[in-house]
């Protein structure tokens, strides 16, 4: 797309319906071969009260679990040994965990009602699971918890809500019902998603707010997951202000909001065409260090186009340019809608300083100027493909390579060095930095171990030499690239052999070999060197393990795309 301005393209098994006996001790008996209660029988009232208090304290006085996007955040509840349950409190807790795994909102509500009926105190974990399920059902789709194992072997139960949508009273009435639930689903695998009908949505929403009020009256502390669930329930009522208030409340409670926390409010405001409120949410996000991703940017872009706000559209297109490497089809449709609109054909400066534009393009790294819409008239919008050679199949023009932001690159190098120093010993990495300052710069860096071991078991220096020499011939200076190897790769009997020894000595003579010391991870060394010198990195390492995940998903993927060279020699 171009007009000359440079901006382009549960079911809960019903079980027994009878009432509980007047005391819980009559229920503490063997109910199946799998499930028994531990401890004494609590023969008198004082013993019962004392034991119950102990159970409550031990279950809720220590570590409180949090609920994540789909269930449990932090440490997952550790179930007792197979076949044994400690107390009614634990029975309810395990029952809730299973409801979370199955996406059983009706079972969770039933457990809440049973707990209130029996006077069992519920903690933050219980409320978090119940409210998560209520908020999911209120939206219309229940996503079972990640704490459960995903699978599709519960297809016969996926029709739960449809089959029993008119039987909202079919919930756990007794502890026996909950125990039966545990036994039935002890080894079940969770489903991926469950769609619910309107009557269940309304019931879950109504009960969700009632349960929240009970939580407030019980002085149970809030967490991010609970407030996010409330925001989602507010979204189901089309109440964007309440959803946004839940996020604002997090700040008052000293809780850091997450991206998911803002979704409900943003969705309501955007879907209602309230552009000002939508961008107020975005501003709040940015002020708390939370950055919108493609789904949020698409919502904002859609409402901006509907409001004919060309300035907001321009702002968001650049957000997509810098933050999204490949837009989804739905986002592409929204972008196309803008450029086909009458508003898009009318906006734009009719006169501009071409030298200023050229300078802005150069300063920006190529491909964009950031000076606003230029020119006017109808856009010529076509869908096309870009070949491996970078040529557009529609207009024949070659895409411009856009340099990475030098400030971002410097920050990235600093973050890598910081992590490496924290994980290294004896200031080894600092010595490496000084070595680079003295012998650098280099035009390419070779991950010696990866290249020398690729597609084989035994390390071959000759393979490293072939790749390094081939790279050298293509470099402007013809200087040897920097080869980084762990010291164990260049020592030992094998390395004392004729050819191997000769190659290592050749690299050393050319000041092109750095041997990382024992205890150091050579990954940080070759990565840092390539970032520091803004040069090519020769490695087949996809850099996807937990170490590289520390670097985040903002800048690192873009850097890899521009600097990594793979070899299949």
Automatic annotation (TrEMBL):
It catalyses: Endonucleolytic cleavage of RNA, removing 5'-extranucleotides from tRNA precursor. Its cofactor is Mg(2+). InterPro entries: PPR_rpt, PROP1-like_PPR_dom, PRORP_C, TPR-like_helical_dom_sf. GO terms for biological process: tRNA 5'-leader removal. Belongs to the PPR family. P subfamily. It comes from the Eukaryota. Residues 1-12 have a biased composition (Low complexity). Residues 84-141, 200-345 form the PROP1-like PPR domain. PANTHER family: PTHR13547, RIBONUCLEASE P. Its EC number is 3.1.26.5. The keyword Amino-acid biosynthesis does not apply. This is ribonuclease P. Residues 18-31, 40-56 have a biased composition (Basic and acidic residues). It comes from Artemisia annua (Sweet wormwood). PPR repeats lie at residues 258-292. Residues 387-566 form the PRORP domain. Gene3D superfamilies: 3.40.50.11980, Tetratricopeptide repeat domain. One of its GO terms (molecular function) is metal ion binding.
């Amino acid at each position: 797309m171009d007009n000359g301005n440079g901006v382009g393209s549960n079911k809960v098994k019903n079980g027994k319906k009878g009432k509980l006996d007047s005391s819980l001790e009559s229920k503490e008996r063997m109910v199946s071969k799998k499930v028994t209660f531990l401890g004494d029988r609590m023969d008198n009232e004082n013993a019962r009260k004392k034991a119950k208090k102990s159970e409550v304290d031990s279950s809720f006085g220590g570590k409180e679990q949090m609920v994540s996007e789909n269930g449990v955040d932090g440490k997952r509840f550790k179930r007792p040994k197979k076949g044994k349950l400690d107390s009614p409190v634990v029975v309810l807790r395990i029952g809730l965990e299973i409801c979370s795994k199955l996406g059983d909102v009706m079972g969770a509500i039933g457990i809440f009602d049973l707990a209130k009926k029996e006077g069992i105190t519920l903690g933050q974990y219980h409320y978090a699971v119940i409210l998560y399920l209520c908020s999911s059902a209120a939206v219309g789709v229940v996503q079972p918890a990640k704490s459960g194992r995903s699978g599709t072997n519960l297809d016969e139960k996926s029709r739960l809500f449809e089959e029993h949508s008119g039987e909202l009273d079919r919930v756990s009435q007794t502890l026996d019902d909950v125990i039966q639930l545990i036994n039935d689903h002890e080894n079940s695998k969770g489903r991926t998603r469950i769609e619910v009908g309107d009557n269940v949505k309304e019931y879950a929403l109504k009960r969700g707010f009632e349960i929240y009020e009970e939580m407030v009256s019980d002085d149970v502390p809030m967490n991010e997951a609970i407030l996010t669930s409330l925001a989602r329930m507010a979204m189901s009522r089309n109440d964007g202000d309440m959803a946004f208030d839940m996020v604002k409340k997090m700040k008052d409670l000293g809780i850091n909001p997450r991206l998911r926390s803002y979704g409900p409010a943003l969705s309501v405001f955007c879907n209602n065409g309230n552009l000002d409120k939508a961008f107020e949410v975005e501003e709040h996000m940015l002020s708390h260090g939370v950055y919108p991703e493609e789904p949020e940017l698409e919502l904002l872009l859609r409402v901006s186009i509907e409001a004919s706000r060309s300035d907001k559209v321009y702002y968001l297109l650049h957000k997509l340019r810098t933050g999204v490497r490949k837009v989804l089809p739905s986002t592409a449709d929204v972008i196309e809608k803008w450029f086909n609109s009458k508003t898009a054909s009318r906006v734009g400066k009719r006169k501009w300083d071409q030298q200023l534009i050229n300078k802005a393009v150069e300063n920006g790294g190529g491909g964009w100027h950031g000076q606003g819409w230029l020119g006017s008239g109808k856009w010529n919008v076509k869908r096309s493909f870009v070949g491996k050679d970078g040529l557009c199949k529609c207009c024949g023009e070659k895409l411009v390579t856009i340099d990475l932001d030098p400030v971002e690159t410097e920050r990235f190098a600093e973050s890598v060095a910081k992590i490496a120093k924290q994980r290294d010993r004896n200031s080894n990495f600092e010595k490496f930095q000084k070595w680079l300052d003295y012998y650098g710069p280099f035009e390419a860096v070779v991950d010696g171990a990866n290249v020398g071991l690729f597609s084989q078991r035994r390390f071959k220096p000759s393979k490293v030499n072939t790749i390094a020499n081939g790279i050298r011939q293509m470099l402007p200076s013809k200087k040897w690239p920097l080869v980084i190897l762990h010291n164990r790769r260049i020592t030992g009997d094998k390395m004392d052999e004729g050819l191997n020894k000769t190659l290592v000595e050749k690299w050393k003579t050319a000041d092109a070999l750095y041997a990382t010391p024992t205890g150091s991870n050579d990954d940080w060394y070759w990565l840092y060197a390539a970032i520091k010198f803004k040069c090519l990195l020769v490695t087949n390492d996809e850099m996807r393990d937990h170490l590289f995940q520390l670097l985040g998903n903002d800048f690192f993927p873009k850097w890899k795309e521009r600097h990594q060279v793979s070899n299949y020699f």
